[in-house]
Amino acid sequence: MLRNLFLAAGCVVLSAGAAGAQRSPVLVELFTSEGCSSCPPADRLLEQLDARAIVLSEHVDYWDRQGWKDRFSSFAFTQRQELYARLFRVERPYTPQMVVDGAIEFLGGDAQRAADEIALAASAPKIDLRLARTASGVRVEIAAAPKSADVMLALADASAQTHVGAGENKGLQLRHVAVVRSLRKIASVRRGERFTREIELPASAAPQRMVVFLQESGQARVDAVALLPAGGE
Predict the structure, then answer these.
(1) What letter would DSSP give residue 145?
(2) Most buried residue, 42, 101, 106, 173, by CB count within 10 Å?
(3) Over the stretch 124-138, which tens digit does the pLDDT of each residue have?
(4) Residue 13 pLDDT grade (very low, low, confident, very high; cuts 50, 70, 90)
(5) If we measure between CA atoms, which residue out of 177, 170, 174, 171 comes closest to residue 161?
(6) Quick check: 28 and 118 in contact, CB under 8 A?
């Protein structure tokens, strides 16, 4: 898989194909909810995209009042989606919504659009971002930032399942991939500044995926992204 090639290479720019074409890792965020009947197809699509991109499933909380409380939902993800809505001039947040590299948004269940946008994003250069697990957490190294940006760290469960007992998806067994449990800014960098730091993490983070990305200030374009898989992946 593309993700495994990335991990073996230890850098952001990958070699792909016999012709030696260069492909960059791509960050795909899906804003979803177990309470939304339109979301399960998008969740399944994200599972397929997990082999082609670095994916994050961010469960919003505004569906929790519609009959089913999503155990993975967080107001923090709702706030992040609201920032994207302002950036993209979307009238209001909606689910399922997919965002590719912080640069484009579209309906989360649109498989063809997802394939096209990921291919386009993969052809654009990104800067080096290297990750390594340490005894206390993770070491992050990022090349000089092209613009002022935030260094973001996500911890995600590799997979999860839920039997939904109420709401629009009542009776369904839902599967999720890369379920974000924590997403936070660990630093800010200025244009032209390199970043190297060891980030301490709780022991509970060991079985989770770690995704680090460099996102231009204002929650804009993603200039670098890297993944460390969960234990056992």
Answers:
(1) -
(2) 101
(3) 999 999 999 998 999
(4) very low
(5) 174
(6) yes
